[in-house]
Amino acid sequence: MVHKDSMAEPLIKAFKGLRYNRDRVEDIAACVCPPYDVIADPSVYYERSPFNAIRLELPVGQGGLDPYLTARKTLDTWISERVVAFDGSDTIYVYEQEFSVQSAHLRRTGFIPLVRLDRERILTHEETREKARKDREKLFESLKTSTSLIFAMYEDGSQEIGRLIEGAAREKLCDFTDEESNRNRFYRMTDPSEMARLASLMDEKHLYIADGHHRLSVSFKLGLPYAAIYLTDMGAPGVTIFPYHRVVKLSNPRGINDILAPLAPYFDYGEVSTERSGLGRLIAGLSSSPTPSFLLYGGRELPALYLFRQKQAIPFDPESHETKRRLRVSVVHRGVLRHLLGVEDGEISFSHDPDAAMAEVERGGADYAFLVPATTTGEVKAIADEGLSMPPKSTFFYPKLLTGLVFHKYA
């Protein structure tokens, strides 16, 4: 329970977002892009439209200006030419995404207010990297605008907030299918009394950051009072987390027996089929296993896929918190790779696509792929509640929130 200070500002409030002007931009689908940190090839989005949000999210220097000044010049031009314009009244936005995972068709619904930046109310689970922080800070300071949304979750056991959002009066702003075949619907709420009720229901909530740790860190550093944050119920069926698999390229290659031997005292293991058609089922089984489990693929010698189930705890990081040591991705990353096998951080890369991870081994770009279970929202909450951090690349929330649906210009 959060004890409210009667003088405190509410946790969330409505705002006037900066959005694409439909009189100038007819195809919003051509103007959105993923968040900066999951974009493999920015040129795809640069070529898609002269108004694509990539020009603000991941700018390229032009005309003698650095990337950040180029982005500011772009935004200033778009505002003056009314390519983007502020909404006429304060609102809270609603964002629905429909998508498929294997055979399941899912929908995730969230809403976007301004959230008061309070370190006791907004809890994180991931360490940030200095290079990314500095990049986002320069962009924030140049634009005085947050271009992409922070993503956070809250608990709504009664589902009262969910029912309010589903039944709220709202105006549809856009509805389109993106490049990953996901349906995106974006609305603004129109009833001030419903927005006030939503703010009241959220006022005692803690928020758990899913994506956007670097943007949040910069917002705190700059002393911003509020940030635009997408909020969704962590218990809703549409909240989907993919695992980040570990792809290992050893500086001194080792055969499979040299990998298996140090693991044998701690794991029961055996070979399983390498058929790709059954891979999804095997990875789903990792997540449902009562003990930490993972798959190991080695293709340098005779291609083989091994299933490991822990039978004895690995004595790694004895000084760290028990919650962190029990985390399944920590067992693999810190226990198996770093402690038992001595793999260096520089020898590990990451992929949320298990087929791509195994293909990298098959073409000789890596020695082994360690396929790990997905982190759960419960694990995210447990780590955040204790003020701890997960290993790098522990969660891949899917689908990503598209950049360009709404911007928050804070100054």
Describe the SSE topology:
Layout: E1 12-13, E2 18-20, H1 43-48, H2 54-57, H3 67-80, E3 84-86, E4 93-101, E5 104-112, E6 114-116, E7 122-123, H4 130-143, E8 145-146, E9 150-154, H5 160-167, E10 170-177, E11 183-189, H6 192-202, E12 207-211, H7 213-221, E13 226-233, E14 240-242, E15 245-248, H8 256-263, E16 267-272, H9 279-288, E17 293-298, E18 304-310, H10 322-326, H11 328-340, E19 348-351, H12 354-362, E20 368-371, H13 377-385, E21 396-398, E22 408-409
Parallel strand pairs: 7-12, 9-13
Antiparallel strand pairs: 1-6, 2-3, 4-5, 4-11, 6-13, 8-22, 9-12, 10-11, 14-21, 15-19, 15-20, 16-18, 17-18, 17-20
Helix pairs in contact: 3-4, 4-7, 5-6
Mean pLDDT value: 95
Find the count of extended strands (DSSP E, 2+ residues): 22
**Domain module count:** 2
CATH topology description of the largest domain: Conserved hypothetical protein from pyrococcus furiosus pfu- 392566-001, ParB domain
CATH class of the largest domain: Alpha Beta
- Estimate what percentage of residues fall within beta strands: 25-35%
CATH architecture of the largest domain: Alpha-Beta Complex
Structural class: alpha+beta
Largest sheet data: 6 strands, mixed
Principal-axes geometry comes out as globular
How do the strands of the widest beta sheet line up side by side?
A: 1-6-13-9-12-7
- Rg (C-alpha, Å): 23 Å
Runs in which pLDDT lies below 50 for 5 or more consecutive residues are: 1-6
Tally of separate helices: 13
Classify the helix fraction into a percent range.
Answer: 25-40%
- Give the CATH H-level superfamily of the largest domain: Conserved hypothetical protein from pyrococcus furiosus pfu- 392566-001, ParB domain
Measured between the Cα atoms of the first and last residue, the distance is 33 Å
Assembly of the depicted chains = single chain
